[in-house]
Specification:
- By secondary structure, this protein is of the alpha/beta class.
- It has 2 domains: 96 residues, Arc Repressor Mutant, subunit A, CATH 1.10.10.10; 203 residues, Rossmann fold (3-Layer(aba) Sandwich), CATH 3.40.50.150.
- 48% of the residues lie in helices and 16% in strands.
- Strand 4, helix 13 and strand 5 form a beta-alpha-beta unit.
- Helix 14 crosses helix 16.
- It is globular, with a radius of gyration of 23 Å.
- Bound molecules: S-adenosylmethionine.
- The site of S-adenosylmethionine has 19 residues, from helix 11.
Length: 331
């Protein structure tokens, strides 16, 4: 059972108007225009290049929602939007909203997708639309900077020296693990087009000497060595079961005997009574990927066991699993 839905909440669910008003305000970057203080509709329209009359209506709607305030026809940011939606703020989260807005047209086809079972999208956005891929990685990096150091504390990698970060993206987790464990060096394997973004991050962090970048396709190419630890974060939900089972087998071969695998993803709670929020995320994958979905945790455990890993531990509920390759484990 999910949350309880009252009659007013039911109406609220159907009214997507507020969502689109909000996303449009982020796309127009209204909040950055107000960063230095209150402005009139005409001043904001000039700053964001919009029609004053229509924009004034949008601004009033934003006041009604509670995102802006208005006094004597001067509009101002509320503290929350000033913190999270002004581009110069260190906590800016606008990219996440821009990504949601990017999917808008696709969500309009949800009924068709559910009726036909046919995807809306072909291919992989990281391969076909690197500019969107870069936006996704920016958002993941911003969010990951909070969770990656916590994960590196929770999973003790002090006995290990080498880590393979498969589809490592912006390098968020390689960076956190290498910072936490000074004896560790990482190999980050990702698509060549993504590595351009990764390189920028590593150069900024001055960690390029600890993290080697290798370009390739993890479904087609060989990994460049064998490692003490292999790490896979937010990859499974873009792929089919068959691809994931094969990838985990390949990772088994890339793990040294006695080594560890860490799998992090958005897993579905196996308790059928409440599959959890990831069931909703799985609809985003239905709409905006060719074959992605959130998998039940027991299916992921199955791929790990079939590959030969054992001692599976759930480190974070429905998110992180670790397992071990036996000391005598063969390739
Ligand atoms: C959702 S991001 C996850 C990034 C990172 N692991 C994290 O958790 O922050 C998926 C990553 O997988 C990479 N990727 C997708 N398909 C790939 C493929 N076939 N081979 C190699 N990398 C791939 C993308 O370029 C992207 O960096």
């Amino acid at each position: 059972m999910g949350r309880e839905i009252s009659a007013p909440a039911l109406f609220q669910l159907g009214y997507y108007w507020e969502a689109k008003i909000f996303l449009t305000s982020v796309r127009l970057d209204i909040y950055t225009a107000l960063a230095k203080g209150p402005k009139s509709a005409a001043e904001i329209a000039q700053a964001v290049n919009a029609d004053t009359t229509s924009l004034a209506r949008l601004l009033d709607a934003l006041v009604a929602i509670g995102l802006l305030t208005r006094q004597e026809m001067q509009y101002a940011n509320t503290p929350t939007v000033a913190e999270f939606l002004v581009k110069t703020s260190p906590f800016y989260l606008g990219e996440l909203m821009l990504l949601q807005d990017e999917e808008w047209e696709h969500w309009g086809r949800l009924e068709k997708i559910v009726q036909t079972g046919r995807p809306n999208i072909t291919g992989n956005i990281f391969m076909n639309r690197p500019e969107i891929g870069e936006l996704v990685l920016k958002v993941l990096h911003r969010m990951g900077q909070r969770v990656a150091p916590i994960l590196s504390e929770k999973i003790d990698l002090s006995p290990y020296q080498t880590l393979l970060d498969v589809g490592g993206g912006a390098g968020t987790f390689s960076l956190a693990f290498c910072k936490r464990y000074p004896n560790l060096s990482a190999t980050l394997f990702d698509l060549p087009q993504t590595l351009l973004t990764t390189k920028k991050h590593l150069d900024e962090e001055k960690m390029a000497d600890r993290i080697q970048l290798v370009g390739g396709d993890f479904n087609k190419d060989l990994f460049p060595g064998i490692y003490d630890v292999v790490f896979l974060s937010d990859i499974l939900h873009y792929q089919t079961s068959e691809e994931n089972a094969a990838l985990i087998q390949k990772l088994y071969r890339a793990t040294k005997p006695g080594g560890k695998i860490i799998v992090k993803d958005m897993l579905i709670n196996p308790e059928v009574s409440n599959p959890g929020w990831n069931a909703i995320f799985s609809i985003h994958l239905l709409v905006y990927t060719e074959k992605g979905r959130c998998f039940p945790e027991n299916e992921v455990r199955g791929w790990m066991e079939q590959a030969g890993f054992h001692s599976i531990v759930e480190v974070e509920r429905n998110t992180v699993l670790t397992a071990v390759k036996s000391k005598g484990g063969l390739g």
